[in-house]
Each structure stands twice: as structure tokens, then as C-alpha cells.
Backbone:
């Protein structure tokens, strides 16, 4: 009798601990998925609602579950979870449903979750490819036979292609890099599984995602779930090259992988295997600069590499959902804008997006001394604020500078890293100091200013974009540098041969931009070839060199004297545009590599 009572209590305990509302012991049919969404809406009245974001070719509504737990506010972030681009990837729909379910179920009792969700609108589109989903169930949904002709293993949508074949791959139909290659992974051939369609956004699924995202006020992140192989993929997909800002994407990717692994020990990996073009996350990062990831759910490729990987045992559903919830939960936290932040402007209270026009005057970034002489090494201070009330340890602070006329996001491909370090940030914040060698010359618009950007990351607080105004983890400050003071009117250049072979150096100086009457004299003694090897001298003679020749790695200091106009002593400043050309001494081939700057100089 005692034993019996104990059993009852244990069952009660299990029910109380349940993290979600619905069951996850078998795969849902499309009708059951709709019922499940409606159950969430009726269970969580006022917090969850359904919105139709498109209509499939066969006239099925494409539905998004909107979770907005608190009263609408203008600065809420939007987070989007998508499943089932590919019809046979049923597990991806379950994982999305589970994410919605658990967020709603836990909201009432989990204070941290409540705080995050109150800052967000969360959108869940569990089954994007409605017609394909219906088709995979058309023969009963049995996973046997394991063959491409079993509708259970259908991948694409079901639009007739006009040649007797059906379907476009919705995950090849986005516009970024659409159709740039034609191969087995991205096909121009309608019957193929990866057919990219007649044109970008020709399909109702990709169109629905495009239009839906375009209508969101404050997109933070999109997680588009697929199966299988246990991967966690970031943009780019179309190339193996790094996307701009890949450092930010890679940090979130790694953090999410470790969150997943912490649940059941499954270590998702980052290998993209092949390049997919016109793919969803590439479009999102390129178009919106909002983080976008593709988890490829269970099973791992090691378990099975065949079609049956799309039909795992139903017992895999719940653990897969649980482990991916951990990553999705972390994204919800990142998007909710609490934690570490760097001000965009003196009046920035941490709101995101920061809406004031001026966003390049962060009071959290400054230098000592304030005057920035070109080439001087100064102390660059960055303040990281912590509004959580407790210490945030092991954050990473990265500081860059960039030409503000090139790209105002951090990191960016043109940004030069000043420093990166791990920091512990007690509340309310902490100042960090980096050494910064102030750049010489002008930016690409001929101006003496540079933008310093700072990015703070923490496992519990990741930036989801590189755009300054849209992330409180990313800030910048524009700095003016001083004109170069010329001692005795002398400007000194360093010509360095970095090409790995002997090369001729030539200088071009644009005299047209000089103020009238200002002259320059170039010291020609640097052209002497006294330190060159016999071989280079021979090559140099062969090519009839007029300038100086430098051995690989060799440096020469070239002096230019600026002569003001004696009749007009008020002229004390000028822009000197200097282009250095390096011409490798390869017989028959003289490739010019030039490197030019305009220097604003002043003299007494
Ligand atoms: O090929 C696809 O569309 C995805 N794999 S699947 O087996 N589910 O079909 C991969 C998309 C690739 N995405 C990124 N590399 N970001
Ligand atoms: Zn897929």
C-alpha cells in the first residue's frame, strides 16, 4: 500500500515538472499541427494569436503564431522561429511548436523569462511548406519503404513546374545569390530536389517569409529549423567565405551549440558540407543584418546518412525539441535587451533600436589625451555598462576602428581590430583601456576622421546584429585627428616592399590640390640602389628603372619638404595627396600595386 502511494506521488511530481502544454510523443499531421496551434491560442488567450502570412499554391494558409505576452510597445524586438521549409523534415515543425509551447507555458512562473518576453514579439511559423507537408502525409506518412518515391520523403513544395514535374525547393528561392550556380545542390532542372525555381521569390513560401519579415518593426533574429545531421549553420551558405560581421554570427553559433550540448550531450557541428544558393539565412543577413541560423536537427550523420534520417523514431522528438529549446531560449534572451551595453549617445538609456539620428557620439568611448595626433599612441577607453545588478564575468570586448565612409557597422570587413579581451563586468559597469595608434592620412572622403566601434559579447548576452543603432552591444564614436605638424616642413613616408620580390617604388604627388603658391620638394637620395643585391640591380637595369628599387621586406624613408608661400604667411595648412606604387621586377610583367593617402599637414 505504501509503495502504491509513492508511485502516485511520483507521477504527480512528473506532471508538475512538465515544461510544456502539449504532447511530443508522435509526429503531427498538418491537421494536428493546426489543432495544436489553436490549442496554444485558446490556452494562452491574450498572449498567443494566429496570423496568416501567405497562402500556398494549393490554397492552404501559411500561419504564424504570434506570442506577445505583455502590452504592445514600440521598442519590442521581433524574434522568428521557422520550421519545415522542407516537407519531409517533420521534426523541424515539432521543434518550433515546442519552442512556442514552452515559452508560453513557462511565462507565468519564470521571472527571467517573463522579463525577456515582455520586451519581445515572438513569431513561430512551424510549417512553412504547407503543400509539401500535406503531401508527405498523403500515403499515410509511413517511413517505409525508405525510397525517394515514398511521399514521406518529399522535400520541395508542390507547384507544378509545367514539364510534368512538381515542386521548387523553397530554401533555394530567396533572392540573395539566387541561381548563381547550377549543380546537384542548387539545380536549374525542375524535376530535381534542389530546383531553385523560375525566379527569385517565385514561390509562396519564400515570398511569405520575405513579406512577413519586411513588415516587422525590429527584427532581431530568425532561427530556421531543418533536419538532419546535428549541425548549427550560420550565413553565408552560398560561399565558404566569411560573411561581413561573421565574428558576431560565429559567437552566437558557438554559444548556441554549447547550450544544445548541455541538455543531452549532443554536440552539433558547424560544417556546411555544401553551398546552398538563394538560401533563407543568407537573404536575412544580407537584407536585414539580423542574425539567422539553421539548426539541422537529429539524427547526426553518423547515425544514418540516408533518407530515413528524415524519419527518426518518435522518441527522438522530445529530446530534440528540448535541446533546441535551450538555444532558442538563449536567443530570446539576447533579443530582449538586458545586460551589458554601451551607449550610442549621451542620451541613450539602453533602448534598442536607438532612434536618435546621431549615433556616433558614444560617451562610453573616449581617448586620453583627447587630441589625436596622427601616428601617436593614445589610450582608448571603453565603458561597458551592466544593468543586471550582478557581475557578468568572461565577457568579450572587441574594439575596432574603421573609415566611417566605408561601413558603419561593427565588426565589418574594413574594420581594423584595435584589441579584444575577456573582461569581468561588475554592476553598474567598467572602463577598459586599449592602446590605439592613431591612423595617419585621411579617410576615403579626404577627411581626418575615423570611427571607433566597440562590441561586447557574453554567453548570456550576444549581439544579434552588427548595426550600431540596433544593438545595445555595439556602439561607436567618431574621432577627428589633427593635421600632421611638420617639423621644418618635412613630411616623411615609409615605402616598404611587402610583395616578396624586388620591386621598384614610385611616388606620385598630386600638386593640383595644393593651395596656390605652396610647393613641395622630394628628397631624391632615397633612390640610391646602394644596398641592393647584384641580382636586383641587374633586373632593375633590364626594366630601365627610374625610381628606387627595394628588396623584399626592405624599407626606405622618403622625405617631402612642403614650402609655404613666403608672400602669404597665413597659409599654414595643405592637403598633400601621395600615392606610392610598387612595381615588382618580374620580366614581362609589371603589376602596379598602389597605396594612396591624402595627408592634411600644417607647418609654422
Ligand atoms: O540544403 C538545405 O537547404 C539545408 N539542408 S537540408 O538537408 N535540410 O536540406 C541546408 C541549408 C544550408 N544553410 C546554411 N549553410 N546556412
Ligand atoms: Zn531542410
Residues:
Amino acid at each position: 500500500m505504501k509503495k502504491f502511494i509513492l508511485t502516485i506521488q511520483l507521477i504527480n511530481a512528473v506532471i508538475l515538472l512538465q515544461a510544456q502544454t502539449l504532447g511530443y510523443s508522435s509526429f503531427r499531421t498538418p491537421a494536428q499541427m493546426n489543432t495544436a496551434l489553436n490549442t496554444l491560442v485558446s490556452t494562452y488567450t491574450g498572449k498567443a494569436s494566429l496570423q496568416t502570412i501567405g497562402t500556398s499554391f494549393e490554397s492552404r494558409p501559411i500561419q504564424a503564431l504570434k506570442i506577445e505576452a505583455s502590452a504592445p510597445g514600440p521598442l519590442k524586438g521581433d524574434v522568428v522561429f521557422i520550421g519545415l521549409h522542407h516537407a519531409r523534415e517533420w521534426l523541424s515543425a515539432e521543434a518550433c511548436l515546442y519552442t512556442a509551447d514552452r515559452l508560453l507555458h513557462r511565462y507565468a512562473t519564470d521571472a527571467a523569462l517573463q522579463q525577456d518576453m515582455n520586451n519581445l514579439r515572438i513569431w513561430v511559423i512551424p510549417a512553412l511548406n504547407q503543400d509539401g507537408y500535406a503531401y508527405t502525409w498523403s500515403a499515410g506518412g509511413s517511413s517505409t519503404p525508405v525510397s525517394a518515391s515514398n511521399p514521406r520523403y518529399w522535400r520541395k513544395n508542390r507547384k507544378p513546374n509545367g514539364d510534368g514535374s512538381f515542386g521548387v525547393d523553397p530554401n533555394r528561392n530567396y533572392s540573395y545569390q539566387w541561381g548563381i550556380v547550377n549543380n546537384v545542390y542548387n539545380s536549374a532542372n525542375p524535376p530535381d530536389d534542389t530546383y531553385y525555381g523560375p525566379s527569385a521569390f517565385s514561390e509562396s513560401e519564400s515570398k511569405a517569409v520575405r513579406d512577413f519579415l519586411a513588415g516587422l518593426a525590429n527584427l532581431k533574429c530568425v532561427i530556421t529549423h531543418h533536419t538532419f545531421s546535428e549541425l548549427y549553420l550560420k550565413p553565408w551558405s552560398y560561399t565558404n567565405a566569411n560573411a561581413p560581421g561573421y565574428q558576431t554570427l560565429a559567437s552566437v553559433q558557438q554559444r548556441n551549440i554549447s547550450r544544445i550540448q548541455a541538455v543531452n550531450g549532443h554536440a552539433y557541428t558547424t560544417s556546411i558540407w555544401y553551398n546552398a544558393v538563394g538560401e533563407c539565412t543568407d537573404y536575412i543577413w544580407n537584407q536585414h543584418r539580423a542574425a539567422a541560423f539553421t539548426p539541422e536537427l537529429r539524427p547526426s550523420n553518423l547515425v544514418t546518412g540516408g533518407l530515413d534520417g528524415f524519419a527518426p523514431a518518435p522518441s527522438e522528438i522530445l529530446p530534440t525539441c528540448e535541446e533546441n529549446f535551450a538555444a532558442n531560449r538563449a536567443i530570446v534572451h539576447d533579443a530582449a535587451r538586458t545586460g551589458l551595453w554601451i551607449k550610442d549617445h549621451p542620451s541613450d538609456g539602453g533602448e534598442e533600436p536607438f532612434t536618435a539620428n546621431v549615433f556616433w557620439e558614444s560617451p562610453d568611448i573616449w581617448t586620453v589625451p583627447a587630441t589625436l595626433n596622427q601616428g601617436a599612441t593614445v589610450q582608448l577607453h571603453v565603458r561597458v555598462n551592466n544593468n543586471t545588478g550582478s557581475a557578468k564575468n568572461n565577457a568579450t570586448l572587441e574594439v575596432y576602428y574603421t573609415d566611417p565612409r566605408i561601413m558603419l557597422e561593427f565588426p565589418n570587413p574594413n574594420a581594423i581590430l584595435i584589441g579584444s579581451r575577456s573582461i569581468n563586468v561588475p554592476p553598474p559597469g567598467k572602463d577598459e583601456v586599449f592602446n590605439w595608434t592613431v591612423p595617419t592620412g585621411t579617410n576615403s572622403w579626404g577627411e581626418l576622421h575615423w570611427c571607433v566601434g566597440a562590441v561586447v559579447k557574453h554567453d548570456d548576452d550576444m549581439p544579434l546584429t552588427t548595426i550600431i543603432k540596433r544593438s545595445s552591444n555595439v556602439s561607436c564614436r567618431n574621432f577627428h585627428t589633427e593635421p600632421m605638424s611638420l617639423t621644418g616642413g618635412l613630411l616623411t613616408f615609409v615605402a616598404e616592399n611587402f610583395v616578396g620580390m624586388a620591386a621598384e617604388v614610385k611616388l606620385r604627388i598630386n600638386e593640383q590640390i595644393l593651395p596656390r603658391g605652396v610647393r613641395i620638394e622630394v628628397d631624391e637620395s632615397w633612390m640610391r640602389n646602394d644596398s641592393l643585391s647584384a641580382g636586383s640591380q641587374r633586373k632593375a637595369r633590364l626594366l630601365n628603372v627610374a625610381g628606387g628599387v627595394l628588396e623584399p621586406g626592405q624599407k626606405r624613408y622618403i622625405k617631402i619638404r612642403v614650402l609655404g608661400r613666403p608672400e602669404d604667411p597665413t597659409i599654414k595648412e595643405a592637403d598633400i595627396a601621395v600615392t606610392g606604387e610598387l612595381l615588382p621586377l618580374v620580366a614581362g610583367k609589371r603589376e602596379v600595386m598602389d597605396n594612396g593617402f591624402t595627408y592634411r599637414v600644417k607647418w609654422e
About this structure: The radius of gyration is 30 Å. Residues 85-86, 89, 226 surround zinc ion (ligand 2) (CB under 6 Å).
